[in-house]
User: Fold this.
Amino acid sequence: MGRGDLLAVDREHLWHPYSSMLDPAPARLVTGAAGSRIHLDGIGEVVDGMASWWSAIHGYRHPALDEAVRGQLDRMAHVMFGGLTHEPAIAVAERLIGLAPDGLDRVFLADSGSVAVEVAMKMALQYQRGAGRPERTRFLTVRGGYHGDTFDCMSVCDPQGGMHGMWSDLLPQQVFGERPPRPGGDVDAWAAGFRALAAEHADRIAGIVVEPVLQGAGGMRPYAPECLPVFREVADEHGTVLIFDEIATGFGRTGTLFAAEAGGVAPDVLCVGKALTGGYLTLAAALCTAEVARGVSASESGALLHGPTFMGNPLACAVAAASLDLLATGAWVDDVRRINRGLQALHDIDAADVRVLGAVGAVQLDHDVDTAAATEAALSQGVWLRPFRDLIYTMPPYVCTDEDIAALCAGIRAAAEAG
Assistant:
């Protein structure tokens, strides 16, 4: 089937994310990928500024990750996790526990980031029931957040600036504090308001759900790390479960292995995904403390009643263990610092705001981006970007060279001027 035929079938039958089925945006045909680059049919190689939605941190076709998948295929591709276990799942759990903040030594393997957050919220609700507080059924969070597109996850996304406003009448009504201040902002004033809100609703709050240090799809907004101890202190004071959603921020993206480290705190539940497998296969996890696990077990069900069909998929676990081994070498630290230095060039772009944190760079315009024009402008500079709302941003693979990062900055500049 030729390129035109493939794209015609795609346009007629495939529903792409965040798009209309009746009037879809153009899709470009990818024919291969290696290192930091993807090959677009009719265009050629371009630097992938998105790292496949922030997941391909080691780049494409990494020898160690390829070998992990091939080796596991020789043993088994999948087996149910109910009543059975296998070495890859045990290996990935051991590695996660060794890397995660202290105390997070119980691991629930999910099959996507949204499911991991759903599981974390269910853990918090069951923990409260196990503690004899079944009336605690709401969650405290902050504005500007994003936690996924399934229903409980949507309920803790920003109710005004997010994309899920049309479901407001159906979603559980959660409690939203003000957006945390930017680095260098007035943390004390924000903290006073957050503490007061928590105290007002303490008797109905099961848990606190936040993205530490960087709010991702809600706007690529860094905030002061000094806010993280406030979340911890409020959770401890009121007996709520602190959940850190590190689907986007985990595994070095913000400059520390986990963003929680920037505030020197550990949550009760940690959600990870995206880069967990280096972008090879879908896998996520919710890690919790022994205390949370005991609370869940003390609830009337006596068990966490959640079990995805592909939970603990051996192929995904094998490549995740290999990805975590790469991270354990620490080489990512210098890579992220080098990328951060290169992304500082974004501050020269004339825009409403520019934000750089770790291996994340975002340019905010004073209007919604003309996505088609901005995408074409970026491609003219040899880079692939995926703007949204008023943002043109990059979260590239850590294997990007200095030349790749310079190209990304040029592409973002061109996209901002065109969009």
